[in-house]
Amino acid sequence: MQGAKRKVFVDFVLQLNFLLCTLNFALKITKNIMSDYLSLENVTKRFQSPEGKDVTAVDSANLDIAKGEFVTLLGPSGCGKTTTLRMIAGFEFPTEGRIVLEGKDIAMLPPNKREMAMVFQSYALFPHLSVYENIAYGLRLRKMSGATLDKTVQDAMDVVNLKGMGKRRPAQLSGGQQQRVALARALAIKPKVLLFDEPLSNLDAKLRVSLRVEIRQLQKRLGITSIYVTHDQSEAMSLSDRIVVMSAGKIMQVAEPREIYLHPNNPFVADFIGQANFLDGVANSVNGEMAEVNVQGQVVNVPCQVALKPGPCKLVVRPETIKLGTEGTFAGRVKTVSYMGSTVEYALESMGKIINVVDHDATWQRVFNEEDDVRWTFRADRSYAMS
Amino acid sequence: MLKRRAADPVFIFGFILSVAFVGIAILYPLGKMLSTVVSVEAIPYFERFLLRPTFQLIIARTVILGLVVGACGTLVGFVFAFFQARVAAPGWLKKMAHWMALIPVVSPPFAVAIAVIVLFGRSGMISYKLLNLRPNIYGLSGLTLVMTLSFFPAAYLNLLGLMRALDPSHEEASANLGASKLRTFMRVTLPMLAPGIASSFLLLFVEAIADLGNPITIGGDFDVLASRLFIAITGEYDLIAGAVLSVILLVPGLIVYLVQKYWADRASVVSVTGKPVGQHQPVRDWRVRVPILVFISFCTFLIALIYLTILFGAFTNLIGIDNSLTLKNFDYVLNGVGQDAFSDTTILASLATPIAGFLGMLIAFLVVRGKFVGRGALDFGTMLGLAVPGTIFGIGYLLAFNNPVTIAGITVLPKLTGGRAVFGGALAILLVYVIRSTPAALRSGVGALQQIDPAIEEASTSLGGDAFTTMRRVTLPLIRPAFLSGLIYAFSRSMTTISAVIFLTTPEIKIMTQQIYNETDTSRFGNAFAYVVVLISIVLVAIAILSLVVGTRTGAERERK
């Protein structure tokens, strides 16, 4: 009797276990299909510097990208973002780790077997081929010909507003037009992933802004998974679903633009995305995502990292959240004033350091002069405490 | 890295092919020669050659000749290039100077020597008949004149390319900072060209000390290593003496090469961005223009005179003595005894040309785009084919391929040289043609490839092209002009070379340059000149055909407006 009961129980546990396993497996598969279209798993790239030293360009990067997502790799030069992109493209091969596209490890596959297309910083158009033949290049390699080929090329030229320019040579186009050809050439083959390597950095500022709007609209309309490398944060902010901030080969934070700006993971991200003032404070108590912080005797309730522990901490205060006036919590002295028209930028000497302030309301506020003594406060709910 | 790249079979195949070529055709004969030289039998030869004053004099003379010709040839080449690239002058004059400078490239080097003897020798048409002088043209002065005229085109082409590649913004920056034209030239332009000037000097130095044709024609008693070596092989049949002399001949060239490479690698400042830049302002100052124009006119006139003499001499019984016109010289070359030499040489050169062109481009591709360890060695190994004097390869081939090459009793290569060799020794001559031409194709290929943004090739692979497709549809079309110049060089070099092949000709295979030498040696100038005219004609026709077939443009050039 005892044995039978026991058997039933064991059976039950085993079945439950089996059920859970199956569920887990199914979840994993769903996750793979639904969200992790392209994944980097512990991708590391080491190479020898000319001096013979081992350099780690990318240090165990992990990243999951969903289908149709626009992800930007952002960071200062030498942070490993381009190397990461080139490993995804297949121009470099990781020393360690896996690159998984639709469930298959493609890390060691040559570029021509990856069904991706890259838009290069230098455009990399084939100078000896016409615009038409440049766009047709990838299609011809896929054995497309005749009317289908012609229609695809024409459509691609249409999409990037290059109608009627098919006969021209790349050298007869402006920089912006050349980059459109490069984009059309990449789009034409309907790649699984579209890769951008600082595609706008050789263009002038206005063109850069208008082209990036076009790129984003196109990408959304066509729903192409895109990875975009840039060192320009405004480009990253305006284009991306998610931004990957990198520094010294490591991924510092992966998040939506808003999240990155409001809740940076660490001082590097806070400083790299926008401007940041770091105030020294002491966290009295931490309650989930809020903390009570003492800054120079002033106690404020601020959002904080979940990982923050009571004790000394840093408070990130954006320049535009500071209000200058004749009254306020803290004292300071204006050291420099930059009148920008729509805004006024100040550097204050306060708390023994330089505090940057951006006044977006210059039309209505008093403009201070250098060496003025001022008082200032900041919006606690827009600051962020980190360890 | 290599492991993964190697996944591309095209890459692997090209790599194996290149290594096999360098190993068998270049390194093996050189190694064979070196092993002969370090053997015990060679010791007395070294004593004889290095310790006796007569031989020390020969070595000194060789070095002096190299230095003088290197300096003169580089100077003439520089002036021609500067005139072409920077001086304001009518277009027809520039074109004429350009073509005149190129004629020596397509003619056998000692054609000039024979014409100079006829014009300026003891009984020369100008020196004696016109000016009633009896100068001694045989010796250093004659050699310098002849070699400078023969070899300066290499310096000219090298420097012209560099001058055109220089970004004018550097000079504009200098002028903008307040420097005069002269100061800009001295402090900016010249230093940026210094590596090119050095490499031209090196090239001419090596050519001068390695040249065999001119010293045996116009050297007189000014004995140099190359002519001494020639006597050792053809007169004394002493291969070991030849090998020892070869090694001695190799040393000065190698030293200059290493010094230049070490120095030029550090000093190289020429920046090729591949982006279209502004145009240089041509020099209009008469103080610069007039001397340069006079100099160019004089040189152009001299070259024209020399080649007209050759042309005229080909149609006369005995130029300078019996100037009556005749066609018998051409009859001799085309229908008579010379017929074999004519066809053998043309066929072998035609075979060598595409091989050298493709090998050059292939190795250039591996060297520039490959990421394997030892690509520098592959480049160096290939360059040895040109850097090492041709006479050395001649002897090396005799030593290496006079018997079948066997590995563990299995014949890998049959007997290539001497009597009863395969194809009458033609294969050895073909190989020599190829190794002598590939380096130039390699250099022009490397230069062209380095100007192509690697991203262009990456774009092709990213769009789905494998290595072969990318090479065929993107890389090769873009380096077409370099490929063409490689082919043209290969053909003219093969047709006109003598130093390496003179040791390899057999009764079955005759080579035109050697026939020219034989005719000159027996003072049958008419026949010699007719050979030269025929040879130059073949080369010119071949250049026209190659340009037509390969095409001179990539299609990427900006349209001229």
Q: List the strand order in the largest sheet of chain B.
A: 1-2
Beta-strand portion of chain B reads under 5%
Average pLDDT of chain B: 84
Number of helices of chain B: 23
Distance between the termini of chain A: 60 Å
Q: How many individual helices of chain A? A: 9
Task: Characterise the protein shown here.
The complex is a heterodimer of chains A (387) and B (561). Chain A is α+β, with helices and mostly antiparallel strands and 387 residues long. Chain A has helices at 2-34, 81-89, 131-141, 146-159, 175-188, 205-222, 233-239, 257-262, 267-272, and strands at residues 38-48, 54-65, 70-74, 96-101, 104-105, 116-119, 193-197, 225-230, 242-247, 250-255, 277-287, 290-295, 298-303, 311-317, 322-325, 330-339, 344-350, 353-359, 373-378, 384-386. Chain A has a six-stranded mixed β-sheet, with helices on both faces. In chain A, strands 13-12-11-14-20 form a five-stranded antiparallel β-sheet. Chain A has a five-stranded antiparallel β-sheet with strand order 15-19-16-17-18, with no helix packed on it. In chain A, strand 4 (96-101) and strand 5 (104-105) form a beta hairpin. The longest helix of chain A is centred in the N-terminal third of the chain and has 33 residues, at 2-34. The radius of gyration of chain A is 27 Å and the shape is globular. The model of chain A has no long low-confidence stretch (mean pLDDT 88). Chain B contains 23 helices and four strands. The longest helix of chain B is centred in the first third of the chain and has 34 residues, at 53-86. Chain A binds chain B through residues 89-91, 93, 108, 110-112, 114-118, 120-122, 124-129, 137-138, 141-142, 169-172, 182, 185-186, 189, 195, and chain B through 1, 4, 7-8, 276, 453, 455-456, 458-466, 469, 473-474, 477-478, 554-559.
